[in-house]
Amino acid sequence: MKFTVVGSGAMGLRYGVLLQDAGNEVDFVDPWEPHVEKMREQGGVYVSRDHEAKHLVPVNVFYPEEYQGEPDCYIFFTKQMQLADVLARCAHFFKPNQYAFTCMNGMGHVEKLLQYFKPEKLIAGTALVATVLNGPGDVDFIGARGAGTMNLANYTEKPDEFTHQLVAELDKAQFNPNLTTNFRGTLMAKVVFNSVVNTLCTMFEMTMGEYAAYEGADEMSRQLIDEAYDACERDGVKMINSRQEELDSVNYVSKVANPLHYPSMYQDMHNYRRTEVDYINGYLVKMGRKHGYEAKTHAFLTHEVHLAELQKQKE
Ligand code: NAD
What we know:
The chain is of the alpha/beta class. It is built from twelve helices and twelve strands. Nicotinamide-adenine-dinucleotide binds next to helix 1 and strand 9.
């Protein structure tokens, strides 16, 4: 299969490099100049696993304006606030028969992708795996090969032949894909997870394990999960987990699977970049308000993260 990754940062590289390893043809498109120039200069991207076994992987990398390839499927991995701009810069090479697949965090991307791709060509999901871009041309895949899982669903909730082929390729590349037929429920499960762990770990500059070890963590998580579910249920989302299962998942991932990990939102704050909080906690607030429900803790946390971003700019 032919893939083109659009947004070739941490996760774009992880998906692209592993799909390339599994025998697919993969191109990489990225707008960040220092990153593209570095990969061209060194003849690829340096890939390590858990800070070890660093090696150079050759990649074909392009700026949006110069790209002319014709893949079967695009894989979008920008940050939410970058997507509209990147899509506009890439629009010249999109074709009506091509698929768009993404596992970006947060919500806001679906509407933007639908401006360029037909509903039956859109597949989105969630990736439960951690990856760090150490700097231009240098990425660290956290966890062993085959670690982590992912969920995906068609926007139409009707998997076609291409979707099954995509799942087979993701499986070969050891992403452990789970295909569902509940689009919003699948995506919102990760939004709710991130609204607890990403946001709190970012604000208090702590690992997921440090958060989960705090004696009040369950009470805090439960309050955020309850408000998030109250907003989602009012908007008609059929959640894939019960509230208790969502809390169990926060605890399992934070205590057992990734206790030493700083979530990606923390990494953005640390690198003086804007966070995706408006597309995570902020999205839940907007969803609730459509139905006259106030997700107060999420609204407060969204403001707190913006305050922390402002403080960080002063450093
Ligand atoms: P990323 O920041 O590594 O890359 C996204 C884009 O930003 C790329 O185009 C990259 O080149 C560019 N970029 C990176 N650093 C930059 C800088 N300092 N200045 C300007 N541009 C820069 O993002 P990511 O971690 O790959 O995340 C992509 C999406 O996947 C997000 O929605 C994220 O929340 C989600 N996600 C991330 C992880 C993770 O562990 N990293 C896991 C699951 C989902």
